[in-house]
Design brief:
CATH superfamily: Formate dehydrogenase/DMSO reductase domain
Distance between the termini: 6 Å
CATH architecture: Up-down Bundle
Shape: flat
Number of strands: 2
Number of helices: 11
Order of helices and strands: EHHHHHHHHHHHE
Largest sheet: 2 strands, antiparallel
Strand order of the largest sheet: 1-2
CATH topology: Formate dehydrogenase/DMSO reductase fold
Helix content: over 70%
Number of domains: 1
Structural class: mainly alpha
Radius of gyration: 20 Å
């Protein structure tokens, strides 16, 4: 029985999914921190950075679509997760920017900036759409019944956890850029981010293991996807380097109070988590295998 790798989704889609996950995760983490009045400057930077990353990712999505009629169809067929995803991305970018910009001086003229209730409603809507941005790729890939490796709700959960990890990681990278954080409470704040990231990484490890185990006991095509992952040393790159190593660094960081030691640890962990977020999407897309309809 012959099997083939999918060729519909390539590098531009991987970049789109990665930037979408990082952007939505960064916004959501920033929204929570801002709501809790924790390090408002960093939280609001996350609020602004999130929609811009998703916007940049959307350009990679459009670059993958070269025919104008297909661009139109992105928004016209609401029964398709491709169309739903396009609307989700659009609504998130608009609502996310509408909420984030009111916290920056050049845009304080926006009328809802002086309406706390309305601005919170806009922010809550953006936060809801950020969650949808995180999970919709799992449904987008899962609607392709011809590729069993993608056809599971565990994929949406995996993308959600990976996006949240990436969101915390991006703020961990941004934190040292703020002088007030370096002077006042940097250790405590990074401990909070690091602890949250460690919990998310631990849950992601469990979810990823469950996803691979389900696939390993699935159809012939699904088992072929697992074989391709093993051949590419996926476990070493993803589990060991991409998750367990940053998890260990994050745990070590919780017990360190010196800035000169904590900063390199947190930055290294953040870079590894972002790299693993990209590699996870690349590996899953690249391992998509289907059985041709007329194969013998």
């Amino acid at each position: 029985m012959s099997m083939e790798r999918q060729t519909t989704y390539g590098w531009s889609i991987v970049v789109d999914l990665f930037l979408g996950g990082v952007g939505a995760g960064t916004f959501l983490v920033g929204f929570v921190l801002n709501h809790l009045n924790m390090r408002e400057a960093i939280a609001r930077m996350g609020l602004l950075l999130g929609p811009f990353l998703v916007l940049i990712g959307s350009f990679f999505l459009l670059a993958d679509i070269t025919i104008r009629t297909r661009i139109f169809r992105l928004f016209s067929n609401l029964t398709s997760w491709t169309s739903r995803g396009s609307w989700i991305l659009t609504f998130f970018i608009i609502s996310g920017l509408a909420y984030a910009l009111i916290f920056f001086r050049p845009f304080q003229w926006l009328p809802w900036g002086d309406m706390p209730t309305l601005s919170m409603v806009i922010g809550s809507i953006a936060a809801l759409f950020s969650i949808l941005v995180l999970i919709y790729p799992g449904f987008l890939l899962g609607m392709n019944n011809a590729i069993p490796f993608w056809n599971t709700p565990l994929l949406a959960l995996l993308f959600l956890l990976s996006g949240l990890c990436s969101g915390v990681a991006s703020l961990m990278l941004v934190t040292p850029l703020f002088e007030d954080t370096l002077k006042y409470g940097m250790v405590h704040f990074i401990h909070i981010l690091g602890g949250a990231a460690a919990i998310l990484v631990f849950i992601e490890i469990i979810a990823l293991y469950a996803y691979l185990e389900v696939s390993a006991h699935g159809s012939v095509a699904s088992k072929e996807s697992i074989r391709l992952l093993k051949a590419s040393q996926f476990s070493l790159k993803m589990f060991i380097i991409g998750l367990l190593l940053p998890f260990a660094l994050l745990l070590c960081g919780i017990f360190i109070s010196e800035n000169f030691l904590l900063s390199p640890l947190s930055i290294s962990a953040a870079i590894l988590l972002l790299a693993s977020g990209f590699y996870l999407r690349y590996a899953i897309i690249n391992a998509g295998v289907f059985i041709p309809r007329f194969s013998i």
